[in-house]
């Protein structure tokens, strides 16, 4: 039984081996307003869609951030910027991409880890195998990992395998994945301001899954973890998603209620 599980997982992962063997080093830049982004020359990727898949961002997000009205008019030498604030993960998952940063003059470990990235310094040091806090100009560090569209497929495939009691290795299929898009009203849960982290309540998205929220007024996008369902009788019936204070702040929310666009993954049976 365990052997069948292992064989099946290996087969699933091998179907995505082209992506997992990506040997490029992707470097992030940090602007004066602490925006973290990756700058991509379109010619190096071949298409906007490839950039979208590589870094796990939507085409709409790329268009909004780069103020692109028509993808067909873009020249191959154009630099496409991918904003990755709040997208970096501390630990590497199967298929996720390491993102690098080159230290600039005058920067300190605290400034990079805490001020720029809002990360635990010990986690940062462990990830980069650092013996002390000393850093120098032009040092290169891994600042985190990005989940691409392909790494999400790997996670869904392996979780599907692990959830089965018996496995027929003669008929292996990847689970079908559908991206659900919604427009609706977000509500800021200000009753728990002490809670840290990017969390939401949503009535359809699976608990512990990831959901993408876009604020068209502030032109900001955040990916957050679904804590659970919206409880009945507590919030108005027109509320589509309930946000933690940290999530709302990153979205640039000015009111307790505001319009958002939502995207999440739904596995088909």
Describe the protein.
The protein is an alpha+beta fold. Helix 1 runs antiparallel to helix 8 (149-162). Among the domains are: 2-35 and 85-146, no CATH class; 177-267, Barwin-like endoglucanases (Beta Barrel). The chain contains nine helices and eleven strands. Strand 8 (210-215) and strand 9 form a beta hairpin. The radius of gyration is 20 Å and the shape is globular. It has helices spanning 2-14, 17-20, 42-45, 48-55, 59-66, 109-116, 121-127, 149-162, 245-250, and strands at 26-30, 36-41, 79-83, 97-102, 140-146, 177-188, 199-202, 210-215, 220-228, 239-243, 257-267. The two termini are 23 Å apart. It has a six-stranded mixed barrel with strand order 6-10-7-9-8-11. A five-stranded mixed beta sheet has the order 3-2-1-4-5. Mean pLDDT is 79; it is low at 6-21 and 152-167.
Topology summary:
Blueprint: H1 2-14, H2 17-20, E1 26-30, E2 36-41, H3 42-45, H4 48-55, H5 59-66, E3 79-83, E4 97-102, H6 109-116, H7 121-127, E5 140-146, H8 149-162, E6 177-188, E7 199-202, E8 210-215, E9 220-228, E10 239-243, H9 245-250, E11 257-267
Parallel strand pairs: 1-4, 6-10, 7-9
Antiparallel strand pairs: 1-2, 2-3, 4-5, 6-11, 7-10, 8-9, 8-11
Helix pairs in contact: 1-8
């Amino acid at each position: 039984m365990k052997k069948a599980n292992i064989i099946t997982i290996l087969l699933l992962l091998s179907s995505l081996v082209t992506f997992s063997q990506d040997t490029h080093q992707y470097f992030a830049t940090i602007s004066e307003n602490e925006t973290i982004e990756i700058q991509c020359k379109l010619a190096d990727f071949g298409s906007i869609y490839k950039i979208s898949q590589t870094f796990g961002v939507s085409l709409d997000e790329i268009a909004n951030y780069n103020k692109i009205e028509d993808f067909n008019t873009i020249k191959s030498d154009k630099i496409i910027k991918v904003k990755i604030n709040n997208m970096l993960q501390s630990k590497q998952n199967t298929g996720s991409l390491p993102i690098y940063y080159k230290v600039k003059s005058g920067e300190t470990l605290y400034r990079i880890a805490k001020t720029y990235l809002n990360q635990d310094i010990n986690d940062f040091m462990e990830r980069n195998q650092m013996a002390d806090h000393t850093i120098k100009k032009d040092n290169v560090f891994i600042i985190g990992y990005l989940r691409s569209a392909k790494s999400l497929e790997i996670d869904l495939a392996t979780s599907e395998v692990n959830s089965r009691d018996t496995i027929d290795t003669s008929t292996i299929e990847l689970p079908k994945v559908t991206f659900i898009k919604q427009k609706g009203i977000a509500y800021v849960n200000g009753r728990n301001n002490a809670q840290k982290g990017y969390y939401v309540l949503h009535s359809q998205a699976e608990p512990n899954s990831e959901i993408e929220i876009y604020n068209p007024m502030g032109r900001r996008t955040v990916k957050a973890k679904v804590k659970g369902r919206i409880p009945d009788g507590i919030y108005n019936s027109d509320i589509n998603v309930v946000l933690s204070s940290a999530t709302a702040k990153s979205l640039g929310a000015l009111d307790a209620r505001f319009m958002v666009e939502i995207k999440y993954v739904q596995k088909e049976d």
